[in-house]
Specification:
mainly alpha, D-Maltodextrin-Binding Protein, domain 2, 2 domains, 18 helices
Length: about 450
Amino acid sequence: MRRSLVIARTELSAFLRSKSFLIGLLLPPAMAIFATLASSATQPPRPPPEIYRMAVVDPSGVFGKAIEQAAAKRNTETRQRGERGWVLIPTLAEPGDRSLDSLRRDLANQVLAGEIGAFAEIPADLMQQADPVGRVRVHAETTIGHEFKTWFEQTLRDETRARELREAEIPEELRARLGREIRIEPIVLAPRESENPKASAAAKPKSLSDKLGSFRRLPAGGPLALIVFILISLSSGPLMQGVIEEKTNRVSEILLSSVSPFELMLGKLLGGLAASGCGATFYLGVLVAALLGFGIEIPPSLVIWFLLFLSLGALLWGSVFLAIGAACTDLKDTQNLVLVSLVVQMIPLFFLTSIVMSPASPTAVTLSLFPPAIPLVMLLRLSLEPAPPLWQPVLAALLLAACALAAVWIAGRIFRMGLLAHGRSATLREMWRWVRAD
């Protein structure tokens, strides 16, 4: 074991001195910062509200003033809320000495020339029509928007109702109650923190976690899951390359004169695991600092699961890549085996969206119990609601541990035979024979 620790220390030193490892470690946060800055810099300026001009033909003189007042009220509320909607500027079109048909032609020409957006023609007998549905024509070059149509209909409806109530000689107090506006004020109930009513009476300001609702743990769990994926990839590849270089330079033969193949492989695995721990410390520090700036805390239980799944995942994939390096003579021979391994590693990435939207679905549960995908998928599910029952992450950890131990054992059998094999790469049949050999 002492020899394995010496090898692990040497491997860790090689990892920390490797430019590719350091670049791979710094690249993800640098890319995240760059993407944030680029998104902010390239975001187009917020356009001002669109001004919509409309002429109103109201021969009865009943609705014109009401439309102007309703439009002014809506425009004021739109500006106060900072919305990007449209601003309506209605103008009353008086026929004067012209006929109604002549006025229509003039207004239609203005619409086609772009001077106004539309003109509305309100019938003079709209209040006296027996038809339960009043018809008001709005002439425009294109179809009017649904939001404007709804607002215009509601404005005419409210004014019609108010005038009907006044003409019916209903008392003003009753008219005010009948025309009263009703608004919905949504109130989100917070969980009760204390039986003491005085303690729960004071309302607390909502944090970002409260606003995220069922996704309140995702800003912590999502990055942790991706960190596991990144660190496993960063620590596994160099292990394979180091073994191939030692085989090519005959350094492995010298090493095997002092240590056993299993001690050598165990030392390399521990070195890769220590490198993953250094990367995890760096990423956790960056993530905690970033989340605290937004008032989000990382649950301690999530950090414990993160460290457990990272350790087991690094052992699993480190063993796989060590076995590939021991069975091959150069990097070209590793391409097919590495490609298959990368495809298996990337399987959970294709289901991230469905897992986030439905963390309790059969697909999410199955993937979270599939050993190669457990570190990423189970951490992601633990950061979502509904959270998986405790038996699922425990079972996932046991399955991953069993798979990692099996991978270490199989890799050890391949490693001891393949480390001294030269000339050509081993086939899968030969690798299986090495595993079965005494």
